[in-house]
Structure formats: structure tokens, C-alpha cells
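Quick one:
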Amino acid sequence: MARTPTGAAVLQPEVTQAITDAVLHELAEQGYGRLSMEAVAKRAGVGKSALYRRWTSKHEMITAVVAEFSVSRAVLEDTGSLRGDLRVTLQAMIDWLTHPLFSRILPDLVAEGARNPEMAESARSSIGVPRRDRAEVMLRRAMDRGELPADLDVEMAMDVLGAPIYWRMVVRRAPVEPDYLERLLEYVLRALGAQDA
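Output:
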């Protein structure tokens, strides 16, 4: 029977949080390529061994931290209506992409993914897939309620949810006007063929 780990073997949540914060700040300031385990450890006020107890490499550390940050912000709230669910989902996406640190991190990670297939696949599987899974639950719930067509192309619908916000905020770097969310909501409802649109 395995004994319960004690002392240094226990992963303390406050240390993990300090490291997570340090990773996000270092990514925002230095980018993926220049980020070092030494700098993260120094910023977090821990030894490098604390990082290696949690992750085996810089790549694994960055992937885990960015995935946790990103997936936790993909809401899965049942408001009782597609319109309500979409409003919450789209607002959460805007909040994710405009986060003061993440808005500086994402463009660098996208560029790194273009150069580094391993990074691209890690981002797809640890961020893209779980976020899309949550969106699919919302869409299928709306289909079950009769708010969306039974033959909805769910894959295309998930692209329609994310693409306008990503294009506007990350690619174009365009401002988000006060009425943007409501205008986008109406547009997405029509694009999905929603029954109340």
C-alpha cells in the first residue's frame, strides 16, 4: 500500500497558484520562446524543483497553465434559453480574450503554434477541444429544446460562435463597442437558424 506523500512531495495549492501567476506574467512579458523555468521560479518565489514536481518541461508547464486558465473561462451555464446561454457564452469569450494578461499571451502562442506543431497540437487538444465540448453541450441542449434545427451542423455552428470575436479582437485588434455583444448575439442566432431569431 502506497504511503501518503508528506513534506516536499505534497503539492501546496498556494505554491501552484504563485507559479501559475508567474507563468502568465512571464508569458505576457517574454513570450513563449524567451520564457525560462528559472524566471518563473524566481517570480513565484520558489525553487525550480517546485516547477519540476508539477511538470516535466517548460512546454508541459505552459500548456497546463494556459489550458487551466482558458478552459475554466468557457462557461457551461444553463439559463433556460439559447439566447441566454449564448449571451453568457459570448460574454465569457470576450472576457477571456480581453483579459489583461491573456490578450498579450494569445497572439504569441498562435505564432508559436505556426512554427511548432507540438505546441499547436497541445493547444488544440488541451484548450480547443474542451472549450468546443462545452459549446457543443449548449448547442445540443438548444436542439433538444427545439430552439435550433435538429439537423444543425454542430461543427460549423461552433466555428460561428468563436470566429467573429476572435477575428475582431485578436486579428483585427478592433474595439468592442458597448452594443457589440447584443449585435453579435442577434447575428449568431440568425446564422444558427434559431427559432426565436
